[in-house]
Amino acid sequence: MAEPKDKGCRRLSRALSSTALAQSGESGAEERVLVINTGGTIGMVSQKEGLAPEANKLARALKKMPILHDEECAKNLQCRFKLGDDTLVLPLSKQKKRIIYTIMELSPLLDSSNMTPAEWDKIARHLEANYEKYDGFVILHGTDTMAYTAAALSFMCENLGKTIVLTGSQVPIYELRNDGRANLLGALLIAGLFVIPEVCLYFYNKLYRGNRVIKVDADSFNAFSSPNLPPLANAEVDITINWETIWRANTTKKFEIHTNMNCNVGLLRIFPGITAATVKAFLQSPMEGVVLETYGSGNAPNNRPDLLDELKKATDRNVVILNCTQCLRGTVSSAYATGKTLRDAGVIPGADMTPEAALAKLSYVLSKPGLTMNEKRKMLSENLRGEMTVVPIKTQTTLQNSKFIQEIAKYLCISSKEELSAVRDALIPPLACVAAKNGDLDTLKALQNMGGNLSSGDYDGRTPLHIACCEGNLEMVRHLLQSGATVYAKDRLGATPLMNAVKFRHHDIIRLLRTTGAHLSSQELMNVEPELFSLAFSGDVDGLHAWYLAGVDLNKPDSDGNTPFTVAKIAGHVKAVEYLRKYIQ
Fold it and tell me: pLDDT band at residue 424, thresholds of 50, 70 and 90?
C-alpha cells in the first residue's frame, strides 16, 4: 500500500532537516592517528625484576599531561566523534589542525628484546585492518630492536601511501626527566600533519627513513643515526620536511601487507682468523640467506681459498649471500680485488644498506612466492623502499640549477642556496597546479624532471592531483599516480582528490583512485549523508553512482530510519528508485 503523501512529505522533511544539522558541524580541522603500543621503555614501570611494560596504563597517564591531551577540547568533540577511553586529543597545532589519536595495545606488551617476526606480522595486520580508518600511524616500540622492526615493516607494507612512524624512549614517560613525551608528540604531529608515505623512525627531533637507521647509543637521548641518508625531517622551531628525499611508491596499486617473512636468514660477521669450519657450519641447511658483514668497502680475505670455497658452495646450492660493510658509513664497492673475489663467488653487493635493512630485505624477498632464484637475486640488487643509494646513470637536471629559477633569483637579488631553495619551493606548487588544470602533461613532466615535488600543495593545499581530478583529465591523473603523487593529500578544507572526483562525477577517475587505494577520510564521510539525501531528493542518479564508486554505502539509514531509497521514492523519482533498489539489503 502506498504511503499517504502528507505523511511521506513529513518523513522527507525530517530526513532533510536532520542532514542539514549534520552539515552545520565544524569542518576541516581534525586528523585521526592510530597509536599501536607494542611495549618498550616508553611505557615501562619499575617492578621487582626491573623495568617492564604495564598494560592499560598509558592512555590514562597521557590524559593527565596537557601537552598530550586537551581535556576541554575532548569534551567538545565527544558528541561528534564519540571518543572512547583510549582516545585522546592534542592541543591545536600551528597549522590549526586538531589531531585525535587512539591508543591500541598489543597483548602482551613486550620489551623489544623479545620482538620476533610473529610480532611484525601482528603489527602489519593491525595496520591493514585500520588503514582506511586513520590518516596516519604511530608505533610505540622499544629502542633495542626498533631499527629491525622499522626495516621489516618498510618491506612488509607494500604500496604504502600513508605515514607510519615508529618511536619510543630511553626513559619511561612516567619519569620526571624523560624523552618519551617529546618523541611521542613529534611522532603524532608528523603522522597527523604530513603525508609521508614511508615507514619512518622519529627520535630526538629527527625523522629518519625506517630502513636506514641503526641504534648508536644505549645511554643518550640521541640514540639513533642514519649514516648514509640525511634525516627526512627536522623538528626544531618548525618541522621542516626534506621533501626531495621522501620515497614514494610509483604505482597505482592498493596498500597491502606481506607477512610470513622467511626466518631462515642470519648475520655473519667476518673477522681476522675466522675459520672455514665456522663459515661452513653457519651456511648449512636450513639457512637460506645470509648478510655477510665484511671489511671496509665490502672486502674479505682473498688469500683464503678455503673460506671462499665455502661461500661458493653455498651460493651454488642457492643460499643467497648479501654483502654489507661493517663500517658505520660507506658502501660496498668492487674497487678492491678482495671485494671482486666475493662477487666471483656469487655474493651480491648490498650497496650502503645497514645490516638491519639487509636482513629484513633478505627475509622479505626470500619469502616472496612464485619467483625464481634469479628473480630474487635481481630483486635484492634493486632499490625497493629507498633502503640503498643507487647512483643514477646520468645526472638529473634539478630545478635549483635551471636557468628559469636562476633568472628569477637574479631578479630578486637572491644569492644563497637557502633562498634559492625557498624560491623553488614557492614556485613549484602553483606551476604544477596550473599545468594540471590546463592538461599540460609536457610542462608537468618538465617540472618533475627538474626535481619538482608533484605532491606539494598550493596556497590552498590543493595538489596537482586535486586539480586533475576536478578537471576530469584521466591521463593526467594516471601520470601523477605513477609518479608517486599521494591520493591522501587534503586541501585547506580537508578535501581529498577522491572527493573532488566525486563532486564533479568523473567516474573513470574515481575507479582509478579507488584501485590505487584512495578512500574518503573520516571527516568527509561525516558529511556524506546530507549529500546522498539531497541527490536522492533531486533524482540525480549520476551523482549517487559517483558516491557508490567511492565506496559509500547507499543503503545506510539515518537516525530516523530514512535511506536515500525512501527519499527518492517519496520524491517520486523512478530512475533513482530503480537505481537505489539494487542496494537494498
Answer: low
What is the C-alpha to C-alpha distance for residues 320 and 142, in angstroms, rounded to an integer?
30
What is the pLDDT at residue 579?
94
* Secondary structure of 344-358 in HEC code, one letter for each residue: HCCCEECCCCCHHHH
Residues facing 325 on adjacent strands: 294
For residue range 223-254, list pLDDT tens digits in order. Answer: 999 999 999 999 999 999 999 899 988 888 99
SS3 114: helix
| Residues 384, 212: Cα–Cα separation, whole Å | 13
Whether residue 115 contacts residue 149, with contact meaning beta carbons closer than 8 Å, is answered with yes
Q: Are residues 143 and 151 in contact, defined by beta-carbon separation less than 8 angstroms?
A: no
Contact, 51 vs 42, CB < 8 A? no
Q: Is residue 304 within 8 Å of 312, Cβ to Cβ?
A: no
List strands edge to edge, sheet with 289-294.
Answer: 265-269, 289-294, 320-325, 348-349
517: left (phi over 0), alpha (psi -120 to 50) or beta: left
- Residue 104: strand pairing partners: 36
pLDDT at residue 17 tops 90: no
The catalytic residue positions are 41
* CA 494 – CA 513 distance, rounded (Å): 17
Mean per-residue pLDDT over the chain, rounded: 89
DSSP element (H, E) containing 166: strand 163-167
The pTM (predicted TM-score) of the whole model is 0.89
How many other β-carbons are positioned within 10 Å of the β-carbon of residue 554? 20
Could you report how far apart the first and last alpha carbons of the chain are, in Å? 21
Q: Are strands 136-140 and 30-39 parallel, antiparallel or unpaired?
A: parallel
Q: Tell the residue number behind the cell numbers 626527566, with chain if given.
A: 177
CA max distance for the chain: 97
| Span 141-163, average pLDDT | 97
Give the whole-angstrom CA distance, residue 378 versus residue 373. 9
